[in-house]
Amino acid sequence: MDWFFKFFSNDHALELVLILSFSLLSFVITRKYLLALIKKVASKTKNQWDDIILSKNVFFRLSYLMPAIILHVFSEKVISSLISFDINFLEIDLFKRMLTGYILLVVLFVIDSLLTSFLTIYNNYEISKRIPIKGYLQLVKIFVFCIGAVLVISAILDKSPNIFIGGLSAL
Question: Band of the pLDDT at 73, cuts 50, 70, 90?
């Protein structure tokens, strides 16, 4: 219990609790209210593309970005609060790199959902029966995920993506 009293007797404790609470609150508001509002607006439109984008979870996956962005913006405050408690296993730089990697992963999954939505929308047109693009779209997804994997790894390891791309081209 000593850590509990030490935590709340520190000046940075309130900052840390507020930042984490704000991050969690932003996630809940985005997920519960903003997503419900988007669904309500999409159901009232005549276009089907917005319904398809909703069904492919584009906005659902986007909701994971808000808390990560808030933590990234306030990461120096969060880490300085944790370091003041003698928790030295986290550094500001490592925390930011991990958050950047997480944000890139979420963006990759959003792009994947958008491409899947595009395919579903395209398949609703008559031309899709004559000119299928599913194979091409899968190639685009593979390319996007390969580039995304390189970007995530380079963000976490704090190295230039050119190093990893150069290493891949040597294979």
Answer: confident
How many other C-beta atoms lie within 10 A of the C-beta of residue 36? 10
The predicted-structure confidence for 76-135, as pLDDT tens digits, reads as follows 776 666 665 555 555 667 778 888 999 999 999 999 999 999 999 999 999 989 999 999
Rounded-to-integer distance, Cα 74 and Cα 23, Å: 10
pTM above 0.85, yes or no: no
Termini Cα distance of the chain: 54
Task: Report the C-alpha gap between 104 and 4 in whole angstroms.
Answer: 34
Q: HEC string of the chain?
A: CHHHHHHHHCCHHHHHHHHHHHHHHHHHHHHHHHHHHHHHHHHHCCCCHHHHHHHCCHHHHHCCHHHHHHHHHCHHHHHHHHHCCCCCCCCHHHHHHHHHHHHHHHHHHHHHHHHHHHHHHHHCCCHHHHCCCHHHHHHHHHHHHHHHHHHHHHHHHCCCHHHHHHHHHHC
Asked if 63 and 30 touch (Cβ cutoff 8 Å), the reply is yes
Contact criterion met (CB below 8 Å) for 59 and 33:
no
Query: 142 with 131: CB under 8 angstroms?
Result: no
Backbone phi and psi for residue 35, each to the nearest 5 degrees, phi listed first: -65, -40
